[in-house]
Amino acid sequence: MGAGGTDAGRAGYGDVLRAPYAARLLGGTLVGRLPHATGPVAVVLFTRAEGGSYSLAGALAAVYGIATAVGQPLLGRAVDLKGQPRVQLPAAVVSALGMVLLAVAGIGSLPVAFGAVAVAGLFTPPLEGGLRALWPSVLGDEERVHRAYALDAVAQEVMFTAGPLLVTLLVSLHSEAAALVVINALGVLGALAVVVSEPSRTWRSAPREAHWLGALRSPGLLALFGAFFFVGLALGSITVAGVAYAEDHGRDEIYGWLLAALSFGALVGGAVYGARHWAGAPESRLRAIVALLALGYLPLALTPGVVPMLGLAALSGLFLAPALACSFVVVDRHAPAGTVTEAFSWLVTTFGVGAAAGTAVAGPVVEGAGTAWSFSVAGAAGLAALLVLTATSRVLAVPVGGAGTVRSGAVPAGPAGGAETDILPGTGFGSGENDRNGAAEPGFSSGREA
């Protein structure tokens, strides 16, 4: 994978954030996703504070995670069909009400508690996929969109690090129930900030072929989702292995240090990746990045002393944000017309399901073989992700549009229902796209989550 500096590349993330609505959309999406980023932690803390067992806390958190995985692609498809405001804000409100019900009712009635977290998870709005669908119409230039995807991945690391800290702060200031309510109220406000913006209000998905599989009819997307299931599995296994490592060293805070080091590595990697212009097809680049990601996981099995282990944790995260950023470009290239939000939501789902599988696999490995072998799960999962991308390279080599341009598949609403023009002559933006999984479809013209 080659890199070359350009004027746009040197402009960095500031160029993206200075675009109209960009900072608002990114900030609103991050705040809107706080409930999702903190949900499992908040549920576990609340359940324990109510006198529930760790088993009950884990079961409630698992139901929340499974419901979120089910709801994301369904709501993503609804966004593609109905637009963002009609889906995102109502979903955010219903999801928040589910968590408020849990906070008010407690765990005295288990059916109510499980129903509340299921509703909260199922209606978690697909803000992440929605933001990525908006970037091309907000930024226009393909290179700026690539940079926005990298910024998106970096911002996720910040959110998943700062979110749990915010929960613990709210708990210390008031209570676990208050943390649930405040975090979800913030989530609704974040979603509101996004959907009342002009790009979100005017965004419309491109016409889509009626097909029950939706985005899943793209072979390239299926290959990508299969690979990122294993990337998620690697991260999920590290969370369990990290706890075991901290217990081995007799200091619980080491677990937090390990995750912070991993996030720091991802922040550095994402910042460097997004500041460069990368030549060549993103599918080939993604294979190279995932290969480096897998290699970064392997040394964790050495489980050295705390200080060198923190260095290895940072190294293991170095290529995570670049892998995510590059995968966003690949999703956009392979999503059938009119399914872009759904496609991004499926990526979130497969990654989350993989993380859940990783925690399930690493637990028995810790108990049966020890901490070092539990870290080996991450390395094996990284190699499995690389194997999937390598085995499906021919499928991934041909994007939906065939031309290799980033697109949103969006049509801004206009007086006549969305007339289309080529807003960037010569770039492929706004031009017709050939959906190799269906019929020829128009792209987006003028105009629009993490």
UniProtKB/TrEMBL annotation:
Segments for region (Disordered)? 414-450
A GO cellular component entry from the record = plasma membrane
InterPro entries for this protein: MFS (IPR011701), MFS_dom (IPR020846), MFS_trans_sf (IPR036259)
Q: Could you tell me the keywords of this UniProt record?
A: Membrane, Transmembrane, Transmembrane helix
> Where do the TM regions start and end?
54-75, 177-197, 218-242, 254-274, 286-303, 309-331, 343-366, 372-391
Which GO molecular function entries does the Swiss-Prot or TrEMBL record give?
Answer: transmembrane transporter activity
Q: Which stretches make up the Major facilitator superfamily (MFS) profile domain?
A: 220-450
Primary localization class, coarse: membrane
Tell me which SUPFAM superfamilies the record gives. Answer: MFS general substrate transporter
Topology relative to the lipid bilayer, per the entry, is: Multi-pass membrane protein
Family annotation (Gene3D superfamilies): MFS general substrate transporter like domains
Q: Where in the cell is it found?
A: Cell membrane
PANTHER family membership:
MAJOR FACILITATOR SUPERFAMILY (MFS) PROFILE DOMAIN-CONTAINING PROTEIN, PTHR23542
Its name, as the record gives it, is MFS transporter
Species source reads: Streptomyces qinzhouensis
